[in-house]
Amino acid sequence: MPENQKILLVIADQFRADCISGALAQHVNLPNINAFQREAVTFKQHYSVTNPCGPSRASIFTGRYAMNHRSVRNGAPLADDITNIAREMRKSGYEPLLYGYTDTSIDPRSRHPNDPDLKTEEHVLPGFTEALEARLKENYPWRAYLASKGYDIPDYAQFYDSISPDPTRPARPDDPPFYKAEDSDTAFLTHSLIHDLTVRKDQKWFALATYLRPHPPLVAPEPYNRMYDPDDLPMPPRRPSRDLEAAVHPFMKGALHAPKMENIVRGCDGQVDAGNDKDVQLLRALYLGLATEVDTHFGRIINFLKETGQYDNTVVLFMADHGELLGEHHMWGKQNPYESAYRVPLIIRDPRAPAQHGTSVSAFTESIDVTPTILDLVGRDIPAGMDGSSLRPFLAGQTPDGWRDCVHMELDFGEPDGPTEWQKATGTVLHESNLAILREDRFKLVHFNGGLPPLLFDLKADPDEMHNLAGDPAHSATLLRLTQKLLSHRMKHTDRTLSDIKMTKDGALGYRP
């Protein structure tokens, strides 16, 4: 490994996999990501193991399923004794640099009750150096940057509002915000990363860049706000009515209201209606515009690495933390069991394995594999307790023996400070408000806690997940098989941080400090 080996992990928030390969790919222009695919390995069946943002990132950075790290909702603390990618990279001599956010809620046992770190769910994963703070609920550096550029900045609560250019009409979602594209949050993060790494080209470094986009609020500066014609986009697959969607399962009644489509845009009160297909398509077009904005700035980073001679010393990973529904099943957001909420892109370029550049992997991979992969690439052992496996063999064109034939996903949909829409719809108490998913190549099981009925989909015959087969006697054997397989999977992966160690007269057998 070169002495100045570099690692760049880029995470785009709520970036759907089908923008790169799938239903939306032919409707969105992503020239830089597509060019990067030709120089890297694309994992075509990659899944986030949980959502929303905080839990998904906890799984990425710890290599653990949510059932083991237990930071299961935004604001749920991550135990301080769980190791993570930043702490492990420090053991290899890297200073982990964070440009953006990790959405980590820290362990309150590690702080005094008066510590301000306990007053935010958006703290920094222990071990990272916060090179640029870009937290959604604060983002002080970007705000200061805009002020220094001469903007008349509004209150931060209005930063993501659309602004009507015509005072005689209300704002529409495709009206731009008050800032220009060259000064957006996406642009500013990219400026900062490139500015900093310019003077580190002769060093080894590990950098994490996390873009908020295309996460809502769905507001885009020109030209991204009207880059795509809503009339050119396919309608999202869905049942004929919201009532028919709600009838699928008690959970779906809550999911239809969390979040409401109208709530993912700001400054457009009364101008958006979830029952209006033109508004649905307008918001889908805005999402794609924001995806292209991310592509633009990802391209800037790649060009910077090439121009400074760092590209062939840098392992680059591009991925998303989780997915997003854009009107499928009449739903928005990600806290539901459907495919678009979990399937995400993963593209990895290892400059030391050029023979595989431009290839793809169809095997199932999970977000918990990312940290073990990075650690393997820098020569570190994978710590005990991590559930994921290194993808390095795939980067060399090999498939490990006994590789998984399914993916495992989870969602906790309760809150300790009051019932959520999902809880109200299902009648579940906090510790019953969760579900687990086992997805094979053909069949997908969604198992609900609290005595709720399961869902079963045949993804080969029904890729849009419109027909629940769980109550069909013809599929009872498949339902039983998948339920048993899900139970076995969870039993196999219960936390084993210490359980694989044995105390002997010669010391702790199997312990790796």
Q: Kindly state the number of beta strands.
A: 16
Low-confidence stretches: none
Largest sheet features: 8 strands, mixed
N- to C-terminal distance = 23 Å
Estimate the global geometry from the Cα principal axes.
globular
- Named at the architecture level, the CATH assignment is 3-Layer(aba) Sandwich
If you consult CATH, what is the topology?
Alkaline Phosphatase, subunit A
Q: How many DSSP H or I helices?
A: 13
- Overall SS class: alpha/beta
| Rg on CA atoms, Å | 23 Å
Q: What is the count of structural domains?
A: 1
Helix content: 10-25%
Say which CATH homologous superfamily is assigned: Alkaline Phosphatase, subunit A
Strand order of the largest sheet: 4-3-5-1-6-9-2-10
Would you state the CATH class?
Alpha Beta
Q: Encode the helix/strand succession as letters.
A: EHEHHHEEHHEHHHEEEEEHHEHEEEHEE
Which whole number gives the mean pLDDT?
97
Strand residues, percent = 15-25%
Structure description:
With 513 residues, the protein is α/β, with parallel strands linked by helices. The chain has a single domain (6-225, 260-399), classed as Alkaline Phosphatase, subunit A (3-Layer(aba) Sandwich), CATH 3.40.720. The protein is built from 13 helices and 16 strands. It has helices at residues 31-37, 53-62, 66-69, 85-90, 140-148, 185-197, 242-246, 250-255, 277-307, 370-377, 392-395, 421-426, 476-492, and strands spanning 6-12, 41-47, 96-100, 129-133, 205-211, 314-320, 325-326, 332-333, 346-349, 359-366, 407-412, 434-439, 443-448, 455-458, 502-504, 507-509. An eight-stranded mixed sheet has the order 4-3-5-1-6-9-2-10, sandwiched between helices. The longest helix is centred in the middle third of the chain and has 31 residues, at 277-307. The chain is globular, with a radius of gyration of 23 Å. The model has no long low-confidence stretch (mean pLDDT 97).
